[in-house]
Amino acid sequence: MIAHNDLVALGVVSGARALGVHAPDGLSVVGFDDIPLAEITHPALTSIAAPIERAGAVSLELLGRAVAGQRTLPRTLRLPTQLVVRGTTGPVREETA
């Protein structure tokens, strides 16, 4: 499962554990934003690292331009991301019938 952010992902890991499902054996979990806490939890959280500060700065810049009446055609901006694989993800299990 891919969560909205790392804190939600850690909540999923904790909730699943309370139900007897452990990551990564019974469930793979990925967060998004790679907060420092992600690497020190047990198991360490797999996360997608992204330049959150840069995304916020670009968003404010574009919003400021729009408010000032400097509207432009919609465009796609891509910022670099990286999957940081840690202990909450594992290989897909083969189900036997």
Overview of the molecule:
It is a single chain. The protein is α+β, with helices and mostly antiparallel strands and 97 residues long. Helix content is 30%, strand content 10%. It contains 2 helices and 3 strands; from the N terminus they run H-E-E-H-E. A 3-stranded mixed beta sheet has the order 1-2-3. It is elongated, with a radius of gyration of 18 Å. The protein starts with 5 loop residues before the first helix and ends in a 13-residue tail after the last strand. The mean pLDDT is 92.
What tags apply to this protein structure?
three-stranded mixed β-sheet, elongated, 10% strand, alpha+beta, 30% helix, 97 residues, single chain
Task: Please give a quick description of this structure.
By secondary structure, this protein is α+β, with helices and mostly antiparallel strands.
